[in-house]
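Can't attach files on this board, so I'm pasting raw text. These are the components:
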Amino acid sequence: MSSAQPAISAQNISHRYGDRLALDGVTFRVDQGEIYGLLGPNGGGKTTLFHLLSTLMPIQSGTANIGGYDVASQSEQVRSVIGVTFQSPSLDAKLRVIENMRHHGRLYGLSGTDLSRRIDEQLHRLGVADRARDTVGTLSGGLKRRVEIAKGLLHSPRILLLDEPSTGLDPGARHDLWTYLRKLREESRVTVLVTTHLMEEAEHCDRLGILDRGKLVIEGTPDELRATVGGDTLMVSGSDLESLAGKITEQFGVKPILIDGKLRIEHPRGHELLRDLIAAFPDDIRAVTFGKPSLEDVFIHHTGHHFWDEVAVPGAKKKKGARHE
Amino acid sequence: MSDAATSSTAGSRFLWPAWTLAEREVTRFLRQRSRLIGALAQPIIFWILFGVGFSGSFALGSGKDAVGYQEYFVPGVAAMIVLFTAIFSTISIIEDRHEGFLQGVLVSPASRTAIVVGKLLGGTALSVMQAMVFLALAIVLPKLKLAPEPSWSITFLSGVGVIFWLTLMGLGMTGLGYLLAYRTDSVQGFHSMMSVLLFPMWLMSGAFFPATGSEWLRWVIRLNPLTYGVAGLRHMMYDSRSDALKNLPDPWLCLGVTLFFALTMTWLDVQITRRS
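---
Top answer:
Structure tokens for the assembled complex are below.
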């Protein structure tokens, strides 16, 4: 297979649940050996896209290709080259770790000493070898997650699909996971597609696509995305923000956006504007925070709303509960 | 490419997946004591209570070979065990499919037929094992003078016949459970289906009472596929001239319907699994 061929490509994917359009013409590609992140709030369409790519749901419109195979017509071949880790557990809690691994291996046609060797190797890699004989139900959330990932890697997939992989992982384990994913990529050129709603996790990706309300709003490396935001970001709080916004526009020619009870201003020379603002409106301004753009700023810049702006996200209500687990 | 994932022999795509899913079913069952009680103890309690309760008011045939209720009810209880086990082993599909073990199974390259066959055979094995435990009990109790002397004929051949028949019934019932569970999105929904569909299906199969009531009831019993499963089991257990077989459908018809039902359910299960 030529390396010019993308590991994953999606063309104009749309998906409806009844009347609700969950995905609206999503197009993106992931090159071989790349770690690509789909970033977006819950309810933005990430999980739907994930389910379509992992062959769990039939594609309604558009085409997707994984590892050189068409997802709709060659799902069996697609299944054999991908390793999938779901957001919700796919381990049998009643069975031991090793039993779960064994069942999973056999589903991929592995058996005998080859299977035992792979299980041993993966459990060691993920640091759960000493829990092999424990019943999954008795493990902590973080350990379960690691077994889950070990399971997804058992058949040495070329492409890894991870849905919110760090759910339930503590910061240390999260760090280890990313170290491991990068190592995998370097050693075996494994391609990784990961969905996440965590900004800090998105920073680990080579490239990102921001998915909001079913649309891929923008794509690029984390640095490229930050560069699309106009320089620095100022957040201004005060008593009468609306009239203040008018006055700022009048005097400095910038247009503040009102978000979350604060005025948000993007400006290439933010530090100068900060000084001038305070000099010009000492009584209207209560506080100003100054920052280099974060990925959250990128998100707000391109969607016009806050990352957790639930009201604006159709169908987010159901997902909301899941976040509070 | 040398990774196992791309080799696709019959063994790797069918036999190992089917075997592993069946094995998982049995392992899970043995770890859950409560399921043993649910699927085996309850039918046994039914058998004892109804058997004793109806003993004075029920007899098939007359004289020394007349079949009392306790005896009449034995194949019915075996059918109930098969049905309940099928339900208990398929109910997990409802949650497994969207947020559990089955997700991982469905994204694996295992043949969809192997997935269905593995699940069904696992459930069937549990059905047969439990029904056999009950039948052994039903044979031993009269010998200990704890139940009336039965008139069935136990030979090696009839034993093999009974196991074969229970397997066929188990496959059909587990297949039906799979279909219902795959189509249902909540455990509660499955429970209501169980009480309005599955339990009446058992009641009106000749398991609980013979098809001698009103005309409409006789029709319901005649159209119920489980009727042929229960009747077939009686054919397997008794000598062909026994009073216990009076008014039952022909054994070949029983075989035809039960086999057809099991195969149709399996086929339908494969279809819905493919479409998911």
